[in-house]
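Sharing a chain and its predicted structure for anyone who wants a worked example. Both blocks are below, sequence first, tokens second.
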Amino acid sequence: MVKLTFRRATLADIPAIVSMLADDDLGSQRETATEETPQHYFDAFSEVDADPNQFLCVVQDSMEIVGTLQLTFIPGLARNGSKRGQIEAVRIVGDRRGERIGESLFAWALEECRSRGCSLVQLTTDKARPNAHRFYDRLGFKPTHIGYKLFL
């Protein structure tokens, strides 16, 4: 594996990110990965990119985008006014899974959270993703809470 590069996503990266988001059983049901990426993804990217508390990351191996995640930095009063890092939309390109790219991506993300003053990092994962659960357990994350969602 070539040295991985972690960087802020650009508009040009959106088709590759959407393709990764759609590349599994759950993602294929909720994402629209077509030959021409729908405009709503570009609109969403513009909003994310304009927010200083958001970091949409892509991982490159040479010129190929091989992974992504979104970091949100959440300031708050709880826990003595500490800041949290929220990790969302973690994906590695299907044919590159198992190469420890995810571990490298999380090492980068945790360091980014530390550098932004976060005292903890949290994430949610779908109950239907047992491989992700094993991965997060291996990284030291603990399933300490029950998450709820209400779709609007």
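Comments welcome. The mean pLDDT is 95.
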